[in-house]
Specification:
Distance between the termini: 34 Å
Number of strands: 7
Largest sheet: 5 strands, mixed
Number of domains: 2
CATH architecture of the largest domain: 2-Layer Sandwich
CATH class of the largest domain: Alpha Beta
Helix content: 40-55%
CATH superfamily of the largest domain: Histidine kinase-like ATPase, C-terminal domain
Shape: elongated
């Protein structure tokens, strides 16, 4: 999938302002974390909401630009008596693709908001990983990384706190973003392991061994603290770079 930022031409940036006003600098993304010692859950939800709505804003800007192109083509056809169907179709296809992306973003954000509905519930780890991967892509692009969902395993359910799970999965992602060199591809997968389930964060595309890392001890301790609150365990891979989150069958959080 092409990153939406690759379409952010000067015209798109101008369209962003026309659609939603000049709010591009309201959120600073030097760090993906919005630290809050009192309300970490609220800080996490605010971070994800701000990022997702920024992506939706880009979607609207691209739709506006494409609609403007169609309008220009129609005006041109009135003067010249002809219209380029290929150009019109490309603009329509672009609008359709962005509408789908916008719908997917809003669906994921809505799903994230519903993690507050129940303190403890049974969740599908595959679905939870897919969601955090999808919502993390903008954070990855900001650090010149790519993140993908990889291995999947059937019947990987866990009984725990859904919001805290998303916080753990995202914090592990942050560790990878901060520690790995630029242009890394992070693959997140789910598998069976021991008496429970495991979520793996590994370097994709044949990356083997330990690259030149930037250790993040504070972030790692935060991840361990959140995982402990969830009833899970985190550990480093032994032979190559990787993070594992282990869930036993009794995980409740």
């Amino acid at each position: 999938m092409c990153a939406i930022d690759c379409h952010r031409t000067p015209a798109v940036k101008a369209a962003e302002t026309a659609v939603l006003g000049d709010t591009a600098n309201q959120f600073k993304w030097g760090s993906t974390r919005m630290k809050s010692s009192k309300y970490p859950e609220a800080a996490f939800l605010a971070t994800m909401t701000a990022s997702t709505t920024h992506e939706v804003r880009n979607v609207l800007a691209i739709v506006k630009e494409s609609a403007g192109l169609i309008e220009d083509l129609l005006l041109h056809s009135k003067k010249r008596g002809e219209v380029d169907p290929e150009k019109v179709q490309r603009a329509v296809d672009r609008i359709e693709a962005q509408v789908k992306r916008g719908a997917d973003l809003l669906t994921s954000l809505n799903r994230l908001s519903h993690t507050l509905d129940q303190e403890i519930s049974t969740v599908d780890l595959n679905q939870e990983v897919d969601q955090v991967v999808f919502l993390s892509r903008r954070f990855a692009r900001k650090r010149d990384h790519e993140v993908v969902a990889s291995q999947r395993m059937k019947n990987c359910d866990a009984y725990l706190n859904p919001l805290l799970l998303q916080m753990v999965l995202f914090t592990a992602m942050e560790c990878c973003f901060e520690e790995l060199p630029e242009n890394s591809t992070i693959a997140v997968g789910v598998r069976k392991g021991g008496d429970g389930n495991v979520v793996d964060y590994m370097i994709a595309d044949g990356g083997v061994g330990f690259p030149s890392l930037t250790p993040q001890p504070e972030l790692w301790e935060e991840l361990k603290r959140l995982a402990d609150a969830l009833g899970a365990t985190v550990e480093r891979a032994e032979q190559e770079y990787g993070i594992r989150i282990l869930f036993d069958h009794g995980t409740k959080g």
